[in-house]
Amino acid sequence: MVPISRAEATRTPRGGGDAGAGGSRPVFARSSNDRVIAGVAGGLAERLGVDPVVVRLAFVVLALAGGVGIVLYLLLWTIGRAETETRPAWRAGGDAQRTVAAVSIVIGVLLVLRSMHVWFGDALVWPVALAAVGSAIIWVRVDRSRSRDRDRNGRANGLNGDRSGAAGATTSISFGRLAGGGLLVVAGVAVFLASNISSGTVGAVLVALAVAVAGLALIGGPWIARLIRQLGAERTERVRVEEREEVAAHLHDSVLQTLALIQRSEDPARMRALARVQERDLRGWLYRRDDGGGDGTRNLVSDAVDAVTERIELAHGIRIDTVVVGDRPVDPRLQAVVDACGEALTNAAKHSGASVVSLYLEVTDDEVTAFVRDQGAGFDPDAVPSDRRGIADSILGRMARNGGSAEVRSAPGEGTEIRLDLPRSDA
Amino acid sequence: MTPAAESLIRVFVVDDHQLFLAGVRAELGSAFDIVGQAGDVESAVEGILRTKPDVALVDVHMPGGGGAAVVERVVAAEPDVRFLALSMSDAAEDVIAVIRSGARGYVTKTISTDELVDAVRRVRGGDAVFSPRLAGFVLDAFADAQPAELDPELDRLSGREREVLRLIARGYTYREIAAELHISVKTVETHVSSVLRKLQLSNRYQLTRWATERRIV
Q1: Does residue B2 form part of some domain?
Q2: Which residue of A lies nearest to B110 if distances are taken between CA atoms?
Q3: By the 8 A CB rule, do B64 and B40 touch?
Q4: Which of A99, A368, B54, B106 could be bridged to B134 by S-S, CB 3.0 to 4.6 A?
Q5: What interface predicted TM-score (ipTM) does this complex get?
Q6: B145 at the A interface (CB within 8 A)?
Q7: Which chain B residues are Cβ-neighbours of A371 within 8 angstroms?
Q8: Which class would CATH give A297-423?
Q9: Bridge partners (DSSP) listed for residue A252
Q10: Domain of B49: which CATH number?
Q11: What is the model's pTM?
């Protein structure tokens, strides 16, 4: 009792948020949804951050140690008045340490009880403890993989993180767990039998036990193996179906829509622009998904650039040749440069008369440099029409505000190049 | 820069998309002698070895190993055939793999006919053809700090080479680069060829990694 309540006390800050909602803050709340008798184990497991199975097995083992487990259970039943819905903590992961801690505490308690002679005898308690650990090894794992399936079904079209990988790993690990846990259970039973039967018959009992285990394996083994295989196959199939649906959905939203638009469009320039935007989009989707994290949360400079250039290509029917060197996640300063590039590109699209504009953007650890270049009409920067001056000024101003600079190089008939520079950090 | 008197350049086209093959034939037919075409690796290798073209245009993505496989197998037997890689894909590792297997240039399929004709002539003349995109890939591959054990001769770009690549990436033609840097077009070509050589021979971590991921090395 003492060690357990201390463990609870140290964890109060974390568990307090869920349990203390009622204001009275009971030591722990019994579980209303995860219960075998009164939800004590479920609530305690939630509070301790371990699998309820571990807590239940601990109660069983402690019950054999002089009935302490039963007393403890009844005591906790009366302390934990409120019933709340619990979300098993082990679903959040990272339970290994806590489980080991909980098991260590139980063993410690057992040793204390033994020295106090509150004990039903070594021959009974230790084999049961051994078997309980084995059982925990098997069931904690099985419970978890089952619940993970439920999670997946619940959010069918959620994030598609490392699904297939996790599925495969779970299957292979549960084989190992099954074998290890089973071995411990068998060992527990064997020790129990060996220590409760006179030494002469030990051999015969062990043989009988081995035969019984073999028989059980023959009966249950193939079934369990098939069940596990089936589970894996189902998962793979589900992942495949989901991927297919995702591809179909994407193609429908993008490619098919664009093709329909192109068929109805009379304007070749617009058709070209549509085709180009679609091409870029599809290419990005096909080739970039697995680049970095692969979790679809990529937000790189090149993505920001694509978003800007796509909009301008579509609005003005020009082609933008983009090269990004030193691609990395966007930060506000980089975004500022990308936006300034967008203005320069729009400027070129409107005034240069060129059908192709080049954008080159290079990011290093220290600075970002961008060039927007067209080979169109060009102009004399010293004697420009006021409208262009205005746009050039707005780009210059934007860069200056961010601590960077912009430079316009142009001459009539020789195209225009705008250079943007910005240090990566405040000097 | 190509002498007008020169006989028609013989070109072989390799692509698994019939539509694209037909398009390229139509575009290049007046400028070059199209000696053959193929839609997969096996028939491409066989056809190129049989017709011995001056230049072969190869698609980067193809069933059966892609453009890199074609280049690799032909270059071993027939080193005089020059390769120009064409692709829809922007994936750097694919492009770098084809270049490392021996192609002398890379252009995207959205290139204009004039540019493509020019690129074929350039490759025929022994020069390298770097599109802005390829220049960007190379700058990326040769970026970052260098581990000490690398061969500085092969694993590092000179300042000038870097400048030239940057200008290519900015959309400059070789002639414009020459004017910008106050050097001759020939010198620009020399720099680009030197970069191509480094790209093909360097053991830089990046390049090796890209190549091994595609099981090229």
Answers
A1: no
A2: A276
A3: yes
A4: B106
A5: 0.82
A6: no
A7: 170
A8: alpha beta
A9: none
A10: 3.40.50.2300
A11: 0.57
